[in-house]
């Protein structure tokens, strides 16, 4: 999907909004969440715009897998893989999604409660 002019993460991918980058690939960008909920809180987004993970998965299985493997690579690079980490896709406003450009939250570096709130 083409980049959307009003989308915060499209602007961030384009470099129009600054971010603390963690990893970049041809298809994805990983950057630190501006309001971290854990010692490691990184967002992984495809450069292409999809509103949520359901739309991404329906449109492009390979890119979906790439976002997941990048999320795992971030968890590894942050040193959270051994202790355990969580990959979250909030999907829909009722689940807490506030930015409608699909993003994986990679959370780790502390104990993570279950079930989530
Ligand atoms: P959601 O609530 O949609 O699952 O997650 C959106 C996330 O984006 C939130 O955790 C929020 O802190 C983060 N966020 C919102 N605006 C910005 C921004 O301008 N820069 C960065 N790095 N993160 C942002
Ligand atoms: Zn976007």
**N-to-C series of helices and strands:** HEEEHHEE
Overall residue-averaged pLDDT value: 97
Q: Which geometry do the CA atoms define?
A: globular
Distance between the ends: 32 Å
Strand content: 15-25%
Largest sheet: 5 strands, antiparallel
Low-confidence stretches: none
The percentage helix is 25-40%
Q: Judging by the overall fold, what is the CATH architecture? A: 2-Layer Sandwich
What report would you give on this structure?
The protein has 117 residues and is an alpha+beta fold. The protein has one domain: 2-Layer Sandwich (HIT family, subunit A), CATH 3.30.428.10. A 5-stranded antiparallel sheet has the order 1-2-3-5-4, covered by helices on one side. The model has no long low-confidence stretch (mean pLDDT 97). Bound molecules: guanosine-5'-monophosphate and zinc ion. Zinc ion binds next to helix 1.
Strand and helix layout:
Layout: H1 8-14, E1 21-24, E2 28-32, E3 40-46, H2 53-59, H3 61-77, E4 85-88, E5 104-108
The structure holds guanosine-5'-monophosphate (5GP) and zinc ion.
């Amino acid at each position: 999907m083409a980049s959307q002019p009003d989308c915060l993460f499209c602007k961030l991918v384009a470099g129009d909004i600054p971010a603390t980058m963690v990893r970049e690939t041809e298809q994805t960008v990983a950057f630190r969440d501006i309001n971290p909920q854990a010692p490691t809180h990184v967002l992984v987004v495809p450069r292409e715009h999809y509103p949520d993970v359901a739309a991404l998965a329906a449109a492009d299985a390979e890119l979906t897998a790439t976002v997941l493997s990048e999320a795992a690579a971030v968890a590894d690079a942050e040193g959270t893989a051994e202790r355990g980490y969580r990959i979250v896709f909030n999907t829909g406003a009722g689940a807490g999604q506030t930015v409608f450009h699909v993003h994986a939250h990679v959370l780790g570096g502390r104990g993570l409660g279950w079930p989530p709130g």
